[in-house]
Amino acid sequence: MAVTLFPYTGDDFPLLVEQNAPEMMTYLGGPESDEALQRRHEKYQRLMREGKARMFRIASPADPAVGIIGWWLSEWHDQPVQEAGWSILTRHQGQGYATDALRLLVRDAAEHGDRPLLVANPRVDNAASNAICQRVGFSFRGEEDSEYPPGHRIRTNVWTFDLAGYRESLALGYLD
Q1: Helix axes 127-136, 97-112, angle to 10 degrees
Q2: Alpha helices (H) along the chain
Q3: Is 96 left (phi over 0), alpha (psi -120 to 50) or beta?
Q4: In the chain, what are the domains?
Q5: Helices marked H in 55-154 — which ranges?
Q6: What's the CA gap between 172 and 139, in Å, rounded?
Q7: Are 88 and 67 in contact (CB under 8 A)?
């Protein structure tokens, strides 16, 4: 699968709305209100302007709007990290788009971020997202209790990717 990542813009709000369907929000606490979606849309743009996140629209040769992926500054066990998240529209799931997009995101996180780890926290029962982490080369670090959305307790798997080592490999020319 060939995918391209395009920086998330104000024009991508309809994609965020489309992803708010019940079947898409199963692992994220259910659909958000219109107001919450608007706040998230504005938050993505604000964090990008501030250099605290890089959010992208995922496009394929067949569709300019496959999903959304991104990373943002975060902390894990009192350590500064970059955290990744993604969502692929239902009609595009199971086609390899998320795996390809996450590979591109890892490189972007290494090139544009400065923290040692990229962390992903899919729910333990989200088999697809956990498999994607494994395929892309993240290391499984165990299960943890989390809260998403705020006030909603969930159990997640913690996956980390060694961005420091990846950056070193890039600098040495081991990765093209």
Answers
A1: 50
A2: 13-18, 34-49, 97-112, 127-136, 163-171
A3: left
A4: 4-171 (3.40.630.30)
A5: 97-112, 127-136
A6: 22
A7: yes
- Token pair, residue 42, equals 């504005």
Residue written as token pair 């498999």: 131
The pLDDT of residue 176:
67
Q: What is the largest CA-CA distance in the chain?
A: 47
- Cα separation, 112 vs 5, in Å, equals 14
The answer, yes or no, to whether the previous bond of 64 is cis (omega within 30 of 0) is: no
**Closest-CA residue to 111 (of 49, 60, 57, 54):** 54
User: pLDDT tens digit string along 73-109?
Assistant: 999 999 999 999 999 999 999 999 999 999 999 999 9
Cβ contact 148:110 at 8 Å: no
To the question of pTM greater than 0.85 for the whole model, the response is yes
Structure tokens at 127: 């088999």
DSSP state of 123: B
